[in-house]
Amino acid sequence: MRLRLRLRPRMRTTSAVAGVAALTLLTGCGAADMTKQASPYANAQGARTVTLSVQSWVGAQANVAVAQYLLEHELGYRVDTVQVDEVPAWDALSQGRVDAILEDWGHPEQEQRYVEDKKTIAAGGDLGVTGHIGWFVPTYFAKKHPDVTDWKNLDKYADLLRTAESGGKGQLLDGSPSYVTNDKALVQNLDLDYQVVFAGSEAAQITQMQQFAKEKKPFLSYWYTPQWLMEKVPMTEVKLPPYEEGCDADPEKVACAYPVTPLQKYLNAGFAKDGGKAAEFLKRFKWTTEDQNQVSLMIAEQKMRPEEAAKKWVDGHESVWKQWLP
After folding, report:
1. In angstroms, what CA-CA distances link 97 with 24, 142, 196, 272, 297?
2. Which one of 15, 65, 179, 254 is at 20 to 30 Å from 7 when CA atoms are compared?
């Protein structure tokens, strides 16, 4: 799970699970750098094979699950997946180690370098899902203390949000250190009595939030939408200083909210030009937040294998995916 934060989602530079292996599906955005784990089929001459970058947060993996299923069962391609952290994924895409990234939360520096300057990566169009990163508290806590939803009042609740890991301060729970996040700078620049504590992965962060919710304990967490957990643990966003274009340009001086970001797809430029029906299909691939969350929930909550979840969604949404076929 996480934008134009010099990243998403380290995760803000993100949704809201398909991919390499069931064990890693729920490990969060913080996958190991697997850039050199390129598929031997990537860019293979004449091979009907597509290699997709799969991030470890559930929404991104849901995209890959459905795309892979349709590429294999409707278009006759073999699909390989490679798990790569967000920024290294751009390097892998530029080098042709992977053919496509299906969910990017906004990496301006990489866009400038590879899309505008080197032209080794081509824009693949909107995913159809809008992502947003923010700070959230459980709705049951917000109802009891409505003013907690304004950042100016957070220090008032620091004692209630203190944990053994937060060093005497309130805890701001983040996911993986590999996500692009502005949270440490925000805490410092807004002069808040909080400590950013990394859970280590999206899965670990989810486990902690679910445990807090089970016990009806308060928590403050970096989180993002779309994400299936919101259906299980309703959360309310804390209003940070309004986002304005450029307010996050200097990572050390950030003192504003995260932006709302239409999530984008990117293709290796050579693949975008010569990838045939597979490339055309991926450009047309566009679904809704609801669609993505349905598949994410099946994988993360119902413990279905990605292929099974994809098949179930495909079987019930023919009118949607038929439009993606070239």
Report:
1. 20, 46, 34, 14, 30
2. 65
pLDDT in tens, 111-123: 999 999 999 999 9
Q: Which of 8-17, 89-98, 257-266 has the lowest mean pLDDT?
A: 8-17
Task: Please name which of 12, 257, 240, 260 lies closest in space to residue 148, comparing C-alpha atoms.
Answer: 240
- Spatial CB neighbours of 139, under 8 Å, sequence gap ≥ 6: 234, 235, 236
Q: Would you give the DSSP letter of residue 168? A: T
* Spatial distance between the Cα atoms of 227 and 210, rounded to a whole number of angstroms: 14
CB atoms closer than 10 angstroms to residue 179: 33
Cβ–Cβ under 8 Å, residues 90 and 114? yes
pLDDT band for position 47 (cuts 50, 70, 90): low
Distance between CA atoms of residues 31 and 40, nearest Å: 20
Using CA atoms, how far apart are residues 233 and 246, in angstroms rounded to an integer?
A: 33
Query: DSSP letter at 93?
Result: H
Q: How many CB atoms lie within 10 A of CB 109?
A: 12
Strands (E) located in 34-110: 49-53, 78-82, 100-104
Whether the per-residue pLDDT at 1 is higher than 70: the answer is no
Strand partners, 135: 222, 238
How many whole angstroms separate alpha carbon 278 and alpha carbon 326? Answer: 8
Of 50, 22, 48, 24, the closest CA to residue 38 belongs to 50
Alpha carbons 302 and 295: distance in angstroms, whole number: 10
Average pLDDT estimate for 107-133: 95
In this prediction, residue 43 carries a pLDDT of: 46
- Average pLDDT for residues 280-307, to the nearest whole number? 95
Q: How far is CA 132 from CA 94, 98, 106, 144, 149, in A?
A: 26, 26, 11, 25, 16
How far apart (Å, rounded) are the C-alpha atoms in residues 78 and 238?
44
The answer to whether residue 104 scores a pLDDT higher than 90 is yes
